[in-house]
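Support reply, case 0932

Customer input (verbatim):
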Amino acid sequence: MRLKNEDVLDLINRWLLARLDSSSCAGFVVGVSGGIDSALTSTLVALTGKPLLVLNLPINQEAGQYSRSNEQIDWLKERFPNTKATEVDLTDSFNSFITSFCDDTITNLALVNSASRLRMMTLYAYANSKNYMVVGTGNKVEDYGIGFFTKYGDGGVDVSPIADLLKSEVYELASFLNIPDSIQAATPTDGLWEDNRSDEDQIGASYDELEWALQFHESGFSEEHLGEEKKRVLEIYRSRHYATKHKLEAPPVCKIPNYMKE
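Our regenerated output:
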C-alpha cells in the first residue's frame, strides 16, 4: 500500500504546527546524522516555515556519515531560509566521559547508549536556550515495533512526526521530496559503534523483514504455516518488541496509600 504523499505531508505539517502552537515554543531542533530518518524529519520540519535549528553532533564519527550530515544541512539551508545549523563535536566530551570510569565493568552497549544520551543533552541545551521543541527522528519499526532506540537518548524528544511511518514509507516520502540521493542510498546505521555496524547487523533482520513481522504480529494470524526463516524473523521481532516495552511507558510510581499518612 502506497502513501498519498501530498496528503501525508499536509497532515504532518498541520500536526507539527498545532503541536508547536499548543506548546508556546518558538521553533524546532533536529539532530541530523546523515541517515534517511533524520533527513526526512528535518525536511518535514523545514516545510512548516517555522524556525528550525539542525545540529550535527559527531562522536568519533565515520567520515561518510559526517559528510552526509553536512550535505543534508547544506541542502536544507539552500531551500529553506528558516533553517539554521550548528555543529557541536562531542568526541572529546565523550572520550573524557569514558576515561572517568575507574574499572572495566562498563559494557560497550552501555557506552553506546551513553553517547546517544550525550547527544540528547546537547539537543535539549539548545532547545531550552531558544525555547524550541526537540523533534524525534524514529520510525514506526524502531520506535513501536522493536524499541530500537536509547531510553532517554534518541528516545528523549518532544514530538515524533514520523513514528507512524514504516521504513519503506520513510524512503517513499524522502524520494518524493528529492532528499539527496547519497542519503537515500546509505546503509541505515545509528553511527554509535566503532566498527560502523549497520542497524540490520545489530538487529539480525532487514527492515523489510521487520515490517513484515510487525504487520504479521498485529494481524493476529497463526504462524503455523510459516517457513523457518519467517519464524526466525518473527522471533527476533517479538523478543525485541516485548523486551523493550518499558521504553514506551512512564516509570512506575510506588503509591503510598492515605492510611499510611498521619
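We compared this against your earlier run and they match. Two observations from our side: The chain has one domain: 5-197. The domain at 5-197 is CATH 3.40.50.620 (Rossmann fold). Please reopen the case if you see a mismatch on your end.
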